[in-house]
# Entry
Amino acid sequence: MNLISISFIVFFALSVFIYYIIPKKLQWVGLLALSIIFYLQSDPAYLIFLIFSIISTYLFAIYTSKLKNKIQKKIGLFFIIFLNIGLLFVVKFYSFGSSILNILLHNLNISMQLPSLKMIVPLGISFYTLQVIGYCIDVYREKYKAERNIFKYALFVSFFPHIIQGPIARFDQLAWQLSTPHKFEYNNVKFGLQLMLYGFFKKLVIADRVAILVNQVFNNYIDYSGLQFLIAAIFYSIQIYTDFSGCVDICRGVAQTFGINLARNFEHPYTSKSIAEFWRRWHMSLSSWFRDYIYIPLGGNRKGNSRKYLNVVIVFLVSGLWHGVGVHFIIWGLIHGMYQVIGFIIKPIKDKVYDLMKVDRNTFSFKLGQTIVTFLLTTFAWIFFRANTKQAVYIIVSIFTDFNLNTILTDSLFTLGLSWKQFMISIIGIAVLIMVSMLQKKFSIREKLASQTLWFRWSIYLTAILVIVIFGVYGPGYSGQQFIYMQF
# Structure
């Protein structure tokens, strides 16, 4: 079920109504039923994979909580991780891997060929797989006890606002909220709807509009040159942020109307002053998952700098593999890994240079420069995320060798898929995004708005709705852009 659809709006409204009219002790049962109905709307076959992950990890947690032998517990943990990660890799990578292996076998004159199978990739499998593995590791570590009620555990895994693309929840942060009765509270519904509204603005007004330019340039890259590629790459940086964070805002808003708080997944990542800071602000639930369940178990920074650098690269290599099929995703992950390693290595040198030159690192201009450099570095890496390896190399080479400033001075800027009016709406939308981000860093906009008079609040709400309705990208011939992270 597409979140940007009338059917979802109707489903959401009915869900809230049902949730608050049924007996409070059955609210969690209602949420489970609604989550199953929501998931079935995508493809009933997907439910088989979800049930397998739920049952296998539930049984493991119960089993391991009864064991005293540490070796047996560790063997059980490795087995359940292998089982679920193996399933994830089969559905995501079998077609790609078998085709590569078949080419290799052919070149080696080996007649054996792997069968070509069209694998389905269940909705949200990358997200809920990490969620159930994190749960199993936490139970293994005795961070908390295993959940005995399989249906409550199933709700933790399948809760419909976050199963599509996160945030990746931790059991001790979410499970108790799902099973706790909630009475209707106006503020929860109001703040939830506000957050959803902002998510729709990000998606419809900004992400889906800049996607037109991005798709035009990246899908027809032979027809364009350096500056056009740079503009498209910057727009893609905006697209993937507003698309992903817009979806998360909608999902967090939906959850809040039920009185349930999902973890924040973004904290103004493009205001970061280093790549390390960017990853503390971008897709925060995934970053913290990799830190807690991969980086720290590998040794973190406890075994010297060389091991620390290797661990960082491994984490980002895994991140690239998790995000998608193709060499370009691996390159994207390795680029971010190398960014961090290089940043660690040159930091002492930079500090000495700044001290020698008496650079005041607290000035606005210095911090602005750091932010711009970090944004450009992430934009460079996003090129590999958006394009395959061959296209990405072509685009990057063109940016550095075929850079023509006349693009800005001529109408060719408006031949990238957006008319000048659409282009200006994009720029205004991005400006609003930046302004809201700056205000959010100073105070809570939602709480500040709540303190205003009734007429003022509703003027803002109605204006926001009208802006989305009038300037959102839809209409005759429109096909809503799928949320980017839904494919992962």
